[in-house]
Amino acid sequence: MGMLTHWSVLTVPMVLVLGSILAALFGLIKNEKAKRVLQMISTTAAAAFALYVNIALVAGWKGVPKMADLKPFTVKLTETLTLSWQYYWITGTFAILVMGVLMFVLAYALETFKDDENTTPFYVLTPLLAAAIYMTLASVNLIALFFSWELMSFVAFLMLLYYDRTKEGGPWLYAFWSGVGAMSMIAGIFLFYLASDGKTGFGLFELMQTVPVLTIKHPYMTLAAVLLLGVPFMIKASIPPFHTWAPRTYGSTHPSVAAFFSAAYSKVGIFAMLMWVYMFVGTVMSGKWVTTLGANFRNMPTAFFILAILLAFGAVFTSLLAFAQKDAMYLLAYSSMGQLMYMVMALVLGIGITVGYQKDMNVTMTVYTLGFFGAIYHAYAHGVFEMAAYMALGAAYKRSGGETEFNKLGAYAHRMPVTFFMGFLAMLSTVSIPLMWGFASKYLIYQAALYGRFFVLSAMALIAGTASFLYAFRYIHGIWWGQPTKGYDFMHSVKEVSAWGIIIALVVMGLTVLGGAIPGQVLNFITGNAVNQMVMQSAMAGGPLLIDKAVYMVNGFSILHFGYLAILFTVGILVALLVYTTSGGSRKVNLDDFYNSAEPYRPEWQVQLIGAFYGPIERVIEPYFKVSIERVYNWLGGIFGWFASYIESWNTGDTRDYTWALAGLIVLLMVLWVF
Amino acid sequence: MVEWLKLVDKARSRSIWMLMYCTGCGAMELPPAMTSRFDMERFGIMPMATPRQADVILVTGYVTKKTLKRIIYAYEQMPAPKWVVSHGSCPINGGVYWDSHATVNRLDLFLPVDLYVAGCMPRAEANMKMFTELMDMIAKGEARGWEEYVKNRDYYKENQRKLFGYDLVFTDGRSAL
Amino acid sequence: MNTATVVGTASMGAKFLGALVLTLKVLIYLFLMVMIGLFLMGIYRKFTARVQYRVGPPIWQPYIDVIKLLSKKDAATKNWVFDLGVIMGLGGPLALLLFLPLDTIVGLNFHTKGDLILILYLAVVGPLGFALAASVGASPWGAIGVGRALSMMLGYELPFILGLLAVVAKDGTLLLQKVSAAQSMWNPAGWHYFQWPLILAAIGAHIALQGVMSEKPFDQAIAPHEIASGIMVEFGGKYLGMMLLMKAASLMAELGLFAVFFLGGTTAWDTIVKIFALFIIAISFDAVLGRFRPDQAFTVLWKWPTIIALLGLLLTVFA
User: Fold this and answer.
1) Is the pLDDT of residue B56 over 90?
2) Quick check: B52 and B77 in contact, CB under 8 A?
């Protein structure tokens, strides 16, 4: 056991890097199939190890050190500044999700990469990205966070750049916004430095505590620092108005890459927002801001309320946009954005109410627990179902020869039923059908919003949920059912995924249901018993909250017994099955035997309805999307571009302009010098 | 079991959903039978939108070679037990179009017709009489054309082939996914 | 030791008996509810016929139709997922019925194990199952029907939810039995429907209820004259029969939820009476109105009932 003493926070990233190096070496193999399998084995093994370590750390299993005994990694830069990475329970909670998604995505990539696509960059870069994410999750220092963050963004950019499927500029949009985020973060850090009169060591937890003090001294500077620091986090979590990069970036890449990005990478944004919201609380509830930004509005600081409304609106709008998409990748990207906004909204509600509502401590603690853990649980649910949806799409993508548009897909479920079921369960989870993970997590968020008496917000969240039915159905119908768009001969050549893919699909399907059947246990497990502790604290204070093994309850307000739900749901299905089996017979007919005004269908006809699936309401909502934030950015960009080319024209155009400009500059300098 | 079957036959006779294959003018007198003057819904008789939901197909008018294909297709899409009514003179013997090169004079060579309603065109009273007759036949278990079609499939298919010059196969198995 | 064994078996036997009785109760309850739902549909057909100056079918016509449909011999199916979708489509509403306070009619109290959010999300399992089956059916008409049905759902959910949330805001609970307890059973002045400002929310939700039940003018999804009955286009025989049963169960669930939230539905019997009253109102409108275009219906639903219900909610919250 002497080995164990050498375990540090770097162990997991190093193993991932090792897997990545092995994958790079295997990339030299000429035999394509052997190359892919070896790459998959090496990286998946590294990911599995990482997953095991994180689960063991969070659950306190034997064989790995305790979380607190894990050596931090520190780099001493100056007397006051030490970069440090340290493992704590939030790290673990998010790392389990990231590593789990990493493992499944890497393992399933055998089924999603077409034969003519190079897998080496994917297998090399994805573990590297996961390692960078891990370091970000473990940074306890703002400068350390910055370095990890930028490493992460850069690796992600490389991946996007290599797998730029549609050539619509997705990676460059991502690079631009990452750049904006990096500059904003630097500026925030610098302002913190100024606000603390150069005394801060940039420790994250230290900053969270000192922000109120700094605010009293330098209100504007600290607020600006916190806001600027929040920009990159909001960009990563694709929160409006910093969300415009997400659809094109997710939509234009390879399904497997998008699966990892949307299911795991975006969760870093949630993690960072979680930190940031605390810092934001510190600012708005201190000094000058208490009476303005921090003024209580409906049990929350005004700034928080505005943020929550913004997020709820964003969730509704992205969900409305999602069902109007004609490309499955874009549809899932918008859906992902909507779900992320849900999570951040839950965080904002939960943390906002702790400072806004002081009348009853129990209510505060209940809403806080529901919102905070609802967000984390929904991050998990989203991770699993978005990954499954993208993976299933990826399998169809490979078999259709690289199609992701709905009007070029269709009827694939007839040939690949297991893969369809993975996508189907993912969508059931997305729309939060009871007993799916998505329901167990969204239920917590609704409880938080309703128990905190945020009714309009809840209504908007519920409507976003309803809109998710529309896009979920479009995904199900467009890819998996209806008529084949490439003809029956082509469809006969389509094959189900290999046994390996089927095993992964079955495990993922199991996960989708597991988190919804015994939510209390799963939530407790992934948060290292933190939920139990919160609930126990609440119970000791006579609080109303209960998140048990299989019961959600806010006493006198809401209740949900998952055991009863499972049994009664089964009873309903069994009774339906009884009616089905006791009634008359049925016969199987061919796919092209359908009612077509008695006209026999001819295979050369294109009758798969998908182009204007929700045409009527798309026409209704279209005018309201005339004003989009992206258009504003484009307009601003246009002005800058015009200004830049105007300046450029001085230098490259007419010589007289150039002379005059130079003369003007000299005059200006002289004037400045004189005064 | 026999009682149960009788009950089922009774239920079938009181709930006839029809698919109206309105090939000609014969359907003209069906709306009066449907609306408040005669109100066929009294007997549970309703028009349906698709063959999948229908129990009886009314061929109301002359049958050409071209429409016959569609009629057979619609008939084969219906779930058994199902019935065919040859409605008006034209599907019975060709009516006024008996010597046209494109008209099929006898529907019952190609589909098992359960009931004929003569007339050019049959009035609403005749329609109601037809429906009550059909109801009686179904309740007594006498209308078994759908079994005939299965039993004598070779005969019907042979007639169809003679008429069209090729086997009438709507799905050749290629589209079975 | 002997006694212990005997006691053990006795308690086992008692447990088994208890489970058997419980199962029977559940089955009887579901049977009863579906039968009442079918009876409502019989009323609908008779009522519509009388409005159209016809005699109309006997009031038990839906039972005959269901027996006939379920006894069909070879209904067409495309794939086993088609069958699965239909089973899910009937199973969902049946499970939903078990979470409504109507279950006190046979002495069950499963409705205390769930709340409004569960009911709202359980209510979509049925439509989703049938939508899946329609999608597997592969008829373009079916796809149009599903598209329209889901569009309508987006339309009516907003005012409906706003209306229900106003009641949640007033009573401070999501539990159905508490919402019932906050109202009087028979005195209309004690119903949420007739209390200011909840009456606004109730009116908004009531207009939306017409869409929830897909009665005119919001029956775009199953428009037989336009799109060959939309979702149902590929459903024949037992599949259509199960869809009728699902429709019956959903009617009871939807109207029951509204009766509990706005009309003081407390016990099963008074709720059933109120369901009948609500249904008569709904079909009166259905009998005389035409059908909106899908985009018109969506616009209407997101405009007037939403504004009214939102006003009710805001007035309740800020009161």
Assistant:
1) yes
2) yes
Examine the domain organization and report whether A521 and A648 are in the same domain.
Answer: no
Alpha-carbon torsion, ordered A269, A271, A272, A274, to 10 deg? 120
Name the residue in chain B with its Cα closest to that of A590.
Answer: B176
A434/A376 same-domain check: yes
Q: Are residues A553 and A650 in the same domain?
A: no
pLDDT at C294: 87
**End-to-end CA distance of chain A, in Å?**
73
Backbone angles phi, psi at C215, to 5 degrees: -95, 165
The answer on A637 and A503 residing in a single domain is no
pLDDT digits (tens, 9 = 90+) for C183-236: 888 888 888 888 888 999 999 999 999 999 888 888 888 777 777 788 888 888
**B65 within some domain:** yes
Which residues in chain A have Cβ-Cβ distances shorter than 8 Å to C67?
none
Q: Are both A655 and A552 inside the same structural domain?
A: no
B74 in a structural domain = yes
- What are the C-alpha distances in Å from B53 to residues A491, C139, C240? 30, 14, 7
Judged by a CB distance cut-off of 8 A, whether residue C226 touches chain A is no
Residues of chain B in contact with residue A591, where contact means CB-CB under 8 angstroms, are 175-177
pLDDT in tens, B113-163: 999 988 888 888 888 999 999 999 998 888 888 888 888 888 988 888 888
Neighbouring-strand partners of residue A558: A554
Q: Say if residue A580 is in the same domain as residue A633.
A: no
Lookup: tokens for A539: 């119970």
Q: Do A411 and C138 touch (CB under 8 A)?
A: yes
The reply to whether A519 and A577 lie within a common domain is: yes
| Best C44, C70, C72 residue to mutate vs chain B (most B CBs within 10 Å) | C72
Q: What is the mean pLDDT of chain A?
A: 86
Domain count for chain A: 2
Contacts of C295 in chain A (CB under 8 A): 616-617, 619-620
Contact C180, C138 (CB under 8 A): no
pLDDT of residue A608: 67
| Least Cα separation, residue B123 to chain A (angstroms) | 27
Chains that touch C (3 or more CB pairs under 8 A): A, B
**Are A595 and B175 inside 8 Å of each other by CB?**
no
Q: For chain A, what's the residue count?
A: 675
Alpha helix segments (H runs only) across A27-119: 32-59, 89-112
- Mean pLDDT score of chain C: 88
Position A590 in a domain: no
Q: Report the alpha-carbon distance of residue A367 to residue C214 in Å, rounded.
A: 37
Please name the residues between 140 and 159 in chain C that touch chain A, using a CB distance below 8 Å. Answer: 140-144, 146-148, 150-151, 153-155, 157-158
Q: How confident is the model at residue A2 (pLDDT cuts 50, 70, 90)?
A: very low
Range of the domain at B14: 2-164
Domain that holds residue A650: 629-674
**Is A645 inside any structural domain?**
yes
Half-sphere exposure of B21 (CA within 13 A, CB side): 32
pLDDT at C18: 86
Q: Cα separation of A136 and C268, whole Å?
A: 57
Q: Structural domain tally of chain B? A: 1
Is residue B89 scored above 80 in pLDDT? yes
Would an 8 Å CB–CB cutoff place B177 in contact with chain A?
Answer: yes
What pLDDT is attached to residue B1?
46
Q: Does residue A119 contact residue A394 with C-beta atoms inside 8 Å?
A: no
Dihedral of CA A499/A504/A505/A509: which sign? positive
Which residues sit opposite A587 in a β-bridge? C76
A553 plus A664 within the same structural domain: no
pLDDT 10s digits, A559-616: 888 889 999 999 999 999 999 988 888 888 888 788 877 777 766 677 766 667 888 8
Tokens linked to C259: 């009766």
Question: Which of A559, A585, A587 is nearest residue C175 as measured by Cβ atoms?
Answer: A559
